[in-house]
Amino acid sequence: xxxxxxxxxxxxTIHTTxxxxxxxxxxxxxxxxxxxxxxxxxxxxxxxxxxxxxxMARLKMILTTPFCPYGPAMIEMTKAKAIEGxxxxxxxxxGMDMWDFSMMEDPSALDWGMYA
Length: 116
What we know:
Number of helices: 4
Order of helices and strands: EEHHEEHEEHE
Mean pLDDT: 88
Helix content: 25-40%
Radius of gyration: 14 Å
CATH architecture: 2-Layer Sandwich
Number of domains: 1
Largest sheet: 3 strands, mixed
Shape: globular
CATH topology: GMP Synthetase, Chain A, domain 3
């Protein structure tokens, strides 16, 4: 997993192993909105990696805060949307990384004074 410096898109493992699945996964997962911030989990950079092995996907994600009250609902919605986009079973694993603004695809939200 790395970041593409031009677009700030996180490069998931499936970018290399299953490039045909990337756009569908991004499109479906973009529908999962963090209700407190009002941005998608893709925009926020919360989906840290997606791997596919033996026709089973493993999605690693983080939350903006460890005690996010919407966390359980967001995880379930993420799983449902990943299944919809990837068209295969998906497990969601929680990463231990601490989220920060640099993980956002477009940190221009900072320019709006939303987080300052």
